[in-house]
Amino acid sequence: MWVCFPSILSPSLELSASMIIPCVIAYLDPGAGSMLLQAIVGGTAGMLVFVRHLWRTYQAQRGSRSSMDGR
To answer: What is the pLDDT of residue 71?
Structure first.
């Protein structure tokens, strides 16, 4: 599969840009694609768990301070 950058330049600059940024032959087989998808999904899930942990820690510290103040 040929992967080329889209032409967003004017026609006069398009020729010079095509000389600088050539098309690339790229192939993504199903094994690599599923591994990439798994890494993205796993990373997203891990980040969500980490943010949830930070939020609960923040809430616990905030709650303990307010109980110490007598509120």
So the answer is: 46
